Amino acid sequence: MITVNNLNRTYNIVEGRTFKKQVLYKNLNLSVKQGEFVAVVGPSGCGKSTLLNMIGMLDSVKDRDYVTVINETSDKKESIPTVEGNGQIILNNQDVTELKGNTKSEFINKNIGFIFQFHHLIPELTALQNVALPMRIRGKSKKEANKNAQQLLEEMELGEYQSKKPAVLSGGEKQRVAIARSLINHPKILLADEPTGSLHPKMKQDILERFLKLNSDKNITILMVTHDIDSLYDDNKQLKIDRLISLSKAEEEIDT
Prior knowledge:
This protein has 256 residues and is α/β, with parallel strands linked by helices. It has helices at residues 48-55, 101-111, 127-137, 142-155, 171-183, 201-218, and strands at residues 2-15, 18-32, 37-41, 64-70, 77-91, 94-95, 112-115, 189-193, 221-225, 243-246, 254-255. It has one domain: 3-Layer(aba) Sandwich (Rossmann fold), CATH 3.40.50. The protein is globular, with a radius of gyration of 20 Å.
């Protein structure tokens, strides 16, 4: 369901007339099978969230944002990308690194659900409206979107809160609304970036259990970034999810 082939990413950090390179990934490869629940772990700065953003097409794999520097040898101006990158990302048999514009947006909307650490609910909308929004963007009727949104909120034990706005919801309730929103278009892949990072321990466990249930009941492929490794194990030290993918710290800066 998710395949990353030979992914490379380097940051060029400009300092006056020179720049430094910081290598984040060098020929990174990974794969996640359909229906797997996998967590990406590793120290801060190793590129966990960046990886998730590139898989979800929120960030580009390729070079971009060129800047001008002076070549110290020739004393001539050169253009270099602030971010160098290449590689291939395949989701549900589609090479998404080549998708652009509406085709890209449609693929995301049909195949991927996103959950972030800070829920990103729209404060002016009710819980029901927040959940229904992706389905409305996809062109479905208000009646159909609201019906599906109500059902998902009930599954998240939030049926009585559908008319409430985010400001009056607790952190755990907001995150459950965000989970419901991520599921409204029946995604094949769920990408979760530190979904329990801002919650207290009891809520962290509750959210993780909901992910486990979604994975088992709906066979959704889940790729989650987390620092909270302890919560992934049960009292017998057995891993609750299928497996972990560990990233190492980015390589030290290299003078260029």
